[in-house]
Structure formats: structure tokens, C-alpha cells
Design a protein that fits this description.
alpha/beta; TIM Barrel; single chain; 2 domains; Lyase, Ornithine Decarboxylase, Chain A, domain 1; binds pyridoxal-5'-phosphate; 26% strand; 12 helices; globular
């Protein structure tokens, strides 16, 4: 359920007509519903009621400051994968002791930043990384709380680019090696073994891969207990899918049930790192049609948003529903919805039945709250678009559209190239 619905043939975000915002802030822009964001976070958290837990929203799904602030206020922790995300999270009001840090390529300056702030846990992805963290913690006079990110070799049955828990993926450490890594960690002077972690992929639409991963991790927890290494935190990562088209992923309740039964029997604190399931259907991308063009047996709708604004269709062949902002009098055509970028992969929808939209019409690209703005770029020197949040009957520009000057900020032309 989300708050992007038609009222008298006009698409609304909560109580505000999308057209009204488009006319005032210009297109393209991302539009988020406060009520949907809040509802999704609280529903997810409530699904784990009665369990000692911390839901750490995954910043890379959407790191808009207003959205981070909302989740911080609702009691969320934060899952980060870079120093930049830590910076954003702290500025948005997350307490460092509610931050978990994942990623295969943490730099020394990023590790230092996280150690100085005192984050909850590093999710360590290699032996070399563990050694660097131990050494940096020693140098800074700290003890680093760690979990080993285990690669449980389960097939999440999702797109190969977003599957992360298979042997062939770069993520985590396989179960046998992880056992040895824990034994090494246990002996390191500046490391404290805190938890165990996995994240098997994204847009997962059934519970069985989570159950399999959980089984695998519990085996390791037991083996570690036998050698006197106690695990107090179980981080199950993120990955729960959403409906973009006709997927039928389990709801948070079903997902929680699959996980909780095992955890309840053990003195483990549960950490979850949901991203997409919280924000994916809480945002849309609003774009205006520029032109129509008929190719040989092919119809093109050319919009002012492209792959630099929303990369998922180009990167994963991802499906995003496309809806007209105004429903009146729209026939249906089969077309490609494309952007202005000079790449043939620049499409938002391919060979799709969609509204017979002409120049000037507004379209809503649905389910664009996750991995959307965060993946946008300045390719072709296009300005990053604005982000708008609606609450009840009002809207707020929470990120301004870039201006041309932003494109060259920080650039300099050396004197030997002349001054004019
Ligand atoms: C991306 C990511 C998440 C969030 O994944 P979703 O599929 O958006 O829930 C959680 N944990 C880690 C380590 C990630 O890299």
C-alpha cells in the first residue's frame, strides 16, 4: 500500500496533485510520500515485535537527508557502506552506536572515521580487512566491535547483479574460512567479536533463501560456541523484495516469522538491514514528455528523464510501471519510453503498453524510491534532479535541482592552459 493514487483522474501524492508540484518545481523530480515512508518503516519494525532487535535502514537505497532524519526519529539504526554514508547518517541524527558498516572495500580513512565515532559494528568481509581494522583500532586506542560477513552460498533467486550470497560473489567469507577468521579475530588485541552477519542479495521474493542462510549461520554460531567464541548479535542483512510489476514477495510479517522462530530460542540480538522494502514504493519519478517519434515498427516516447536519473532499467533491465499523471482521454500505445542520453540503453520502459502521451504530458515512473536517486549521475552534464517530500496536503523541496555552476564546482584549469 502506498499513497500515490488517482483522485478525479489526477494522480496524487497523499493530498497533493502531482501536476501541481510539477508545475511549480519543474521536471524531472523524485517525489516521496512521508506517510508511506513512515508506514513502511513501522510495519517492518513491528513485524519483529517481542524480539530484541535493531532495524538498520540501508542508506544506499535512499540517502536523502530528510528521509534519513525521518527514520532516525522513528528509532531506526543505519546500515552504511561508506564514509560518506556515515557522514550523512550522523548529520541526519543517527547515534553512531546504531550504525553498522558493511562493504568489501573499506578504506583506512573510512575505518578511522567509524572507529572515532564509535559505531555499533563493522561487518568484516575479508581477513586482510580484519587485520587493518585491528591495527587501526590499536593506533587509535580503541577496540573494534566486529561481525564476520558470512557468504552462506545460497541462491537468492534474484537478478545476478543483485545476488550477493553465492560462492562466486565477491561478498563475505565462506563458512569454513569464516570459522578460522573468527578464531583469528578472537585473538586480536583490538578486536571484539560481537556478531555474525550475512546479506544474500536484494529484491528476494520468497522466504526460503533467508531460512537457508539462517540455518547456515546457526551452524557456525554453534561451532564457535564449542570453541568458546560467543556471538551476541545476528545481522540478517536486507534483501526483502517489493512489487514492481507482478512479483508477490512475502510481507514483513511472513519474512519476520521465518527468521524469528530461530532467533527466539537463542540469546541473540537481531539486526536487520532493509532498504528497498521500506523506500521502494514510497517514491516516484515524475517526468515530462518532450517529443514523440515513430521509427520503423517502433514508437518512441521521449521524456526529460533518462538513465542518468534512473539507472535501474538500463543496468538490470528492471521494470518500473509508467502511469500518466492525468488519466483523462489517454489511449494506449506500445512504445519505448526513452530519455535524452546518447546511449541505446537509455530507456525507462521498453516495448511497453503505456499511455498515449504526447509532448507536455506528465508521466509517473512508479516504485522509484530505492536505488534511484542514489544511483543518479551527472552523465552528459545533466543536472541532478530535485527531490520533493509530501506530507498530508503540503510539499517540501528536500533537495534542490542542481544548477549549471554545480557541474564545475571544484574544477580548475591549470595556468599553463591559459586564463581565457
Ligand atoms: C544493499 C544492502 C542492504 C539493503 O538491501 P535491500 O535489498 O535494499 O533491502 C543491506 N545490507 C547490505 C550489506 C547491503 O549491501
Amino acid at each position: 500500500m502506498h499513497h500515490f493514487q488517482y483522485k478525479q483522474d489526477e494522480l496524487h501524492c497523499e493530498d497533493v496533485p502531482v501536476r501541481e508540484i510539477a508545475d511549480q518545481v519543474g521536471t524531472p523530480f523524485y517525489l516521496y510520500s512521508h506517510a508511506t515512508l513512515k508506514r513502511h518503516f513501522l510495519m517492518f519494525d513491528k513485524a519483529f515485535e517481542g524480539v530484541s532487535r535493531l532495524v538498520c535502514f540501508s542508506a544506499k537505497a535512499n540517502s536523502c537527508m530528510a528521509i534519513l532524519k525521518l527514520f532516525a526519529t522513528l528509532g531506526s539504526g543505519l546500515d552504511i557502506v561508506s564514509g560518506g554514508e556515515l557522514f550523512r547518517g550522523l548529520r541526519a541524527g543517527f547515534s553512531p552506536d546504531r550504525v553498522v558498516y558493511s562493504g568489501v572495500g573499506k578504506r583506512v580513512d573510512e575505518i578511522d572515521f567509524a572507529l572515532e565515532q564509535g559505531i555499533l559494528m563493522f561487518n568484516v568481509e575479508s581477513m586482510e580487512e580484519l587485520e587493518v581494522i585491528d591495527q587501526r583500532a590499536g593506533a587509535l586506542g580503541k577496540t573494534a566491535p566486529v561481525a564476520i560477513r558470512v557468504n552462506p552460498d545460497v541462491d537468492p533467486k534474484t537478478h545476478p547483479y543483485i545476488s550477493t550470497g553465492l560462492k562466486k560473489n565477491k561478498f563475505g567469507i565462506d563458512t569454513e574460512t569464516a570459522f578460522q577468521t573468527y578464531k583469528a579475530a578472537d585473538k586480536m588485541r583490538h578486536i571484539r567479536v560481537e556478531g555474525i552477519d550475512c546479506h544474500i542479495g536484494s529484491q528476494i521474493s520468497e522466504v526460503s533463501p533467508f531460512k537457508d542462510a539462517m540455518q547456515n549461520l546457526m551452524g557456525l554460531v554453534d561451532a564457535l560456541a564449542e570453541v568458546g567464541i560467543k556471538i551476541s548479535c545476528l545481522d540478517m542483512g536486507g534483501g526483502l523484495g517489493i512489487t514492481y510489476h507482478d512479483e508477490t514477495p512475502p510481507g514483513p510479517d511472513e519474512y519476520a516469522r521465518a527468521i524469528v522462530d530461530t532467533v527466539k530460542k537463542r540469546p541473540l540480538k537481531l539486526i536487520l538491514e532493509p532498504g528497498r522494502v521500506i523506500v521502494g514504493n514510497a517514491g516516484i519519478l515524475v517526468t515530462r514528455v518532450l517529443y514523440r517519434k515513430s521509427g520503423k515498427g517502433k514508437e518512441f516516447v521521449i521524456a526529460d528523464a533518462g538513465m542518468n536519473d534512473l539507472l535501474r532499467p538500463s543496468l538490470y533491465g528492471a521494470f518500473h510501471a509508467v502511469k500518466p499523471v492525468n488519466l483523462t482521454g489517454t489511449g494506449v500505445i506500445r512504445a519505448d519510453l526513452v530519455g535524452p542520453i546518447c546511449e541505446s540503453s537509455d530507456f525507462l520502459a521498453s516495448d511497453r503498453e503505456m499511455a498515449d502521451a504526447v509532448g507536455g504530458d506528465l508521466l509517473a515512473v512508479m516504485s522509484a524510491g530505492a536505488y534511484a536517486y542514489t544511483m543518479s549521475s551527472n552523465y552528459c552534464s545533466r543536472l541532478k534532479v530535485s527531490e520533493v517530500m509530501v506530507k498530508d496536503g503540503d510539499y517540501h523541496v528536500v533537495k534542490e535541482r542542481q544548477q549549471y555552476e554545480d557541474l564545475i564546482r571544484g574544477e580548475s584549469v591549470p595556468p599553463f592552459l591559459g586564463t581565457d
